[in-house]
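[step 3/7] inverse_fold.run input=structure_tokens len=393
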């Protein structure tokens, strides 16, 4: 069975998600103040954390070792404010572990640490979101086997590397954001092909950012090269979107301002942040739904291996996964938290077909897409996308 099929199976439970989860075990007897606030703000019963005490059990030597080490060094794509909000329960549990977090582009997040590793230096302990660079780390023998982490088994098969070199940490649903004042619901496309066939979206009403790696690669891999080439050509030549140099966060602001009616791609978690502020924006998913899995990996030779182990195990626990959702609305990967309460736009996800972004094949798939995408993008006056650029913001 392919990783893509395994992942789809792991998400299949979305069709029968529970609105009010019920757990047989009792809630942990002691919780950090930050966790209590998080649960209260999310209106979640503490019983959702049943089994947490067992999840956080680790060898005593890890704790003793972490006390002697420096700060755990993490690089990923969370906003700094989101990271601080997410990590608050961890800091209460492990106050002796200092934090060094940086938010980086793909170059800073993956290539710079890789080049340093190849020259004998370890710049970070943990990397989130390697993307296609995963194969380069693997071939360099740079990754720790995470199967020693108890929380590794909290992540379903298909959302982790069975050899332990990476583990899924968060999900990303990439579809389209639209202006609710401009777009009647009956004009929203049911499939990606409907986007091209509906005249409503033509002649600049659709804003398109140069991020095919986040959505088109997934759907292309699902339907094959013939579909991908035909769809992309029609998108540029007939639908004629506004091609934009802005990143995806800025694109959402332009949708709200009415610069265009809808934007592709749009992240569910980012769109929800604007919806919660009362902005005239919402999120819609044509089928199949492009889903990306952000990987977490640990570098060999880390000067803070025990602190990194504790951080990783906590982040994969129920508390860590809910804290991540609390900070940025990312759906958890924890096998017991595949619940509709953690979906920003449940009605747009539940029961629909998934197009998964396979991290192992990402580089190969993206290269195929860009052979068609780049000439069309340049033909409309844009700058070709760098195949090595996997940025999402």
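[step 3/7] decode complete -> sequence:
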């Amino acid at each position: 069975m392919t990783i893509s099929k395994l992942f789809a199976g792991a998400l299949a439970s979305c069709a029968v998600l529970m609105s009010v989860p019920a757990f047989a075990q009792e809630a942990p007897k002691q919780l950090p103040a930050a966790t209590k606030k998080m649960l209260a703000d999310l209106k979640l019963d503490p019983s959702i954390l049943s089994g947490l005490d067992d999840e956080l059990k680790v060898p005593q030597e890890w704790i003793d070792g972490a006390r002697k080490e420096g700060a755990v060094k993490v690089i990923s794509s969370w906003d700094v404010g989101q990271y601080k909000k997410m990590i608050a329960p961890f800091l209460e549990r492990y106050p002796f572990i200092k934090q060094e977090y940086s938010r980086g582009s793909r170059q800073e997040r993956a290539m710079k640490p890789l080049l340093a590793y190849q020259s004998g230096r370890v710049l970070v302990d943990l990397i989130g979101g390697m993307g296609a660079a995963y194969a380069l780390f693997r071939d360099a023998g740079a990754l720790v086997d995470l199967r020693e982490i108890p929380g590794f088994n909290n992540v379903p098969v298909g959302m982790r590397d069975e050899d332990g070199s990476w583990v899924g940490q968060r999900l990303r649903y990439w579809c389209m954001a639209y202006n609710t004042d401009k777009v009647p619901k009956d004009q929203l496309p049911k499939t990606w092909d409907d986007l091209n066939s509906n005249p409503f979206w033509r002649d600049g009403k659709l804003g398109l950012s140069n991020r095919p790696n986040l959505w088109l690669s997934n759907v292309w891999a699902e339907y094959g090269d013939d579909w991908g080439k035909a769809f992309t050509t029609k998108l540029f030549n007939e639908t004629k979107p506004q091609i934009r140099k802005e990143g995806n966060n800025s694109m959402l602001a332009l949708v709200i301002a009415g610069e265009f009616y809808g934007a592709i791609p749009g992240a569910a978690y980012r769109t929800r942040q604007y919806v919660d502020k009362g902005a005239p924006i919402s999120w819609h998913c044509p089928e199949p739904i492009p889903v990306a899995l952000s990987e977490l990996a640990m570098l060999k030779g880390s000067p803070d291996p025990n602190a990194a182990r504790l951080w990783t195990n906590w982040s994969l626990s129920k508390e860590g996964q809910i804290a991540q959702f609390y900070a940025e609305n990312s759906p958890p990967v924890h096998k017991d938290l595949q619940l509709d309460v953690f979906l920003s736009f449940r009605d747009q996800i539940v029961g629909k077909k998934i197009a998964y972004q396979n991290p192992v094949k990402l580089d190969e798939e993206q290269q195929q897409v860009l052979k068609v995408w780049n000439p069309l993008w340049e033909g409309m006056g844009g700058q070709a996308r760098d195949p090595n650029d996997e940025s999402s913001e």
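[step 4/7] annotate
DSSP finds 15 helices and ten strands in the chain.
The longest helix spans residues 362-379.
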